[in-house]
Amino acid sequence: MNRLIPSARHRLTLGDQKFTFHTHGLTICSLLEVYGKQKVTLADTSVTQLKKLGADIVVAKYSTKYSSYVFENPAEVHEREGAIDNKWKELTQFSTLKKQILDRYDLNGLFDVGSDLAREIEKERLRLEFAHLAGEFNRWARDTTEAAAITHFGFTLEEVEKVVCNGSLTRKE
After folding, report:
1. pLDDT for the residue numbered 108
2. pLDDT of 161
């Protein structure tokens, strides 16, 4: 429990973090879903068992003919249980906040423009569109350069006039 709570708190308190790619945002959505399932499982198993054990320790009495023992500080057990309950509430608040931030993105493609995830998805869409258009432009530029390379009229005015006058090109006057 002591290792789980700080690492979960760190992941969940990143709040309105900036996503580097939309896949990163989708990964965070998946991790948040897994965290929710893990939290429910731990609450149903480990936390419940620890609380039951704490209750057993507080009410347990050892007694023999020669001695008896009762747990000296039951408030300490209740204090630790309360601390765990407070940490669970804190993690629940953080996960709810994180979910609200991520829920601004709708998986059907309708999203809030203010959402980091939505912005990153739109940036990815625009990046792909730009790459497609840039590819078309590069092909056009390469074809034009190749066509210009094979079209040579000459280096001087005389050479150009000779090509034009020989009928290779028609001269407009």
Report:
1. 45
2. 82
∠ CA(113), CA(31), CA(103), 5° rounding? Answer: 25
The model's pLDDT over 122-134, given as tens digits with 9 standing for 90+, comes to 788 899 999 999 9
- Tell me the backbone φ, ψ of residue 170, rounded to 5 degrees: -95, 135
pLDDT tens for residues 23-43? 666 777 778 888 888 888 888
Q: What's the token pair of residue 60?
A: 């347990």
* List of residues 6+ apart from 20 with CB closer than 8 A: 120
Cβ pair 157, 164 in contact under 8 A: no
Structure tokens at 59: 């009410």
Specify the 3-state DSSP secondary structure of 18: coil
Nearest to 28 by CA among 43, 90, 20: 20
Angle at alpha carbon of residue 123, lines to 118 and 124, rounded to 5°: 100
Q: What are phi and psi of 111, to 5 degrees?
A: -145, 160
Looking at 102-116, 124-138, 139-153, which range is the least confident one? 102-116
Q: How many residues does the chain have?
A: 173
Domain coordinates of the chain in residue numbers? 4-127
Instruction: Enumerate the H helices of 21-115 as residue ranges.
Output: 22-42, 48-59, 74-102
Buried b or exposed e, range 131-145, using 16+ CB within 10 angstroms: eeeeeeeeeeeeeee
